[in-house]
Request: fold
Amino acid sequence: MFALVSNVLVAVSFAALAYFLLLQRRWQRWRRDAATAKPQRFTRRGIRSHYDFIVVGSGSAGCAAAAQLIRKLPKATVLLVEAGQERHTDTLTRYQTSRWIGIGFDQAYDWFFHTLPSKILNGRTMAYARGRTTGGCSAVNACMWVWGDARDYDGWAANGGTHLWSWNECKKAFLEMETYTPNTNSDDDVVGRGSSGPVQVRLAEELSAPLESLIVAAKGSGLCSSSNRDYNSGSNEGVVAASQQNVSSSGERMDAFTSFIEPLLLQQLEEDDSSSGGSSEENVYNRRSHRLHVVSSTLCERVVFDKGVRRNADDDDDDDEDDDDGGGGGAGSGGGGNVRAVGVVLNCGSSGSFYVGARKEVVVSCGALQSPQLLMVSGVGPEDELKNLDVPRIKVLEGVGRNLNDHPCLYVGVNLKAPLPPLTASDYSGDCGGVNVTGFYKSEVSKKEEPERGADMQLVGCSAAMTETVLPISLCSRKMVGHAPYNTVKGMFHYGIIDFLDNALRFFGLERKLARSVLVIGFVLNQPFSRGRITVNGNSSMKSPPAIDLKLLDDRRDFARMVDGVEKLLQLCNRREMASLIKSLGELEGLANNRNKIEQLVKNISAHAWHAAGTCAMGDVVTPRLAVVGVDGLRVVDASVMPTVTSGNTNAPSMMIGWRGGELIAEDYGYVADE
Reply:
């Protein structure tokens, strides 16, 4: 009886502590928001009843697509819709890029999704961070700028994308997007890169001794033996080098909104006649004279079609219904009597729902998790999903939500004999914004089963700044309670412990010391065979999260390559270059020549890499011009259109899809590309 009472008291105490920590965290956020409060630039005020194009989602692809439409169609009007707040300019997101991994624990920036339990991963669920702010995931990620391999894109071309998505076409778009600035503080011999694009790119600077040793070990082992130092040259196999990052020379994150949209907004203001700029009460960023309008904190509830699908009377309160003509068809929208997308229903919270019409097209750019969700709640999707939804059935497309690709990954922390040098102010900027070293190699499994493909494995090394402090704390918390949704008891323990340890380490000044004593190394499986699925489980509201069934490592070939990856890490750590710096191997300790333990480690700590793709794939759900099959006036432009995920981080390819997709749409409405 005494033991029972003691256990109950301990449980109640921990629950009270977790609740207190959550309240403390919310109070800190309220204070922070109050201290940094600024007028919202992108409100509903000034929004028109109709636009030529409505782009839903201001993430990596959506910003690029909207910018292309404005630039290439001189008379077009565009509304860019963002569900989150305008936070891409916050200090945490723009300047302290080294703390990017902590943003995934902050609902002010994140959708806070979680995956369904994975049987192969011991029933674990995993947090799935998605940027909920202007700039989307590009505002909260690790700033890795990785194009992928030429064979990725030629594979798209052969798998439904035609020549429009071949390596030659995609490379042209990458070069147009970027401005690569050589690193003056290192031996930067990268050549042949873009020089006049909106996205600034450079190398990570001044690698620490352990990371330099990792490069030497990878080359010496034969794992990454190529003399090529630019993994964005079209062939990444065998390349190992300092990471390329979309970060400016002053250390600012070059997210999609900053790169593509802010210059256009500034240009619009500069073009305004100061003598007729409107009253002082007018929203300066959404003037009637402007062709590009942005609205934030606004959720797109559904796409509206022209076959009597406005289900509720309060959705039809638009005062310009007689202007709802749907507009010109466009070559890429299908034509020929298909149902047509004519607008969207938006929700600004306290303002309620309202309709905005699209004269030409609705462009869905919500990412690989939410683009299929928006299609399904709007009546476009698989038969088994639509029959459980209380929405009109617009078009049955079995591929919507299926073919979910993601990169499995595994990271461990090894303890160093000597701590790294103290962090400087620049370490909190782009110098150590994410992964500092990356390399690409071909696994033994891939050599046997897919010799024609490129490197399927990506080696990564992360400096102390990236691990400070959330990652070490998260590793500790994971051992105690594991990952769990935020609003569950288990989740409260997990995030409460993170807050408690983070605050304690800061108070005693130990956070930097802890981070400097750890080197994070790992790998990413870039060409997975496993395929998952996005569903809505009968819920027709975009306010509810999608059901994310990753099926990570379900294919035995993926699991075998993860085991192979751990063995490669052990080999690298045991090489003279690394062994002389390592005090202990952490979670790799005792795994040498013990396959059972390695397999258990893979099951215990493998995760996804936040690289979801493929859920509205070309050749299945959309045409090569990214038009939804059988539906006019509706496109999907984001990572969900990839037939297969690229071999590397997906932020740059997502921007490229937006850039290329915007150009294709513009061509369908009269734009003629330069030869």
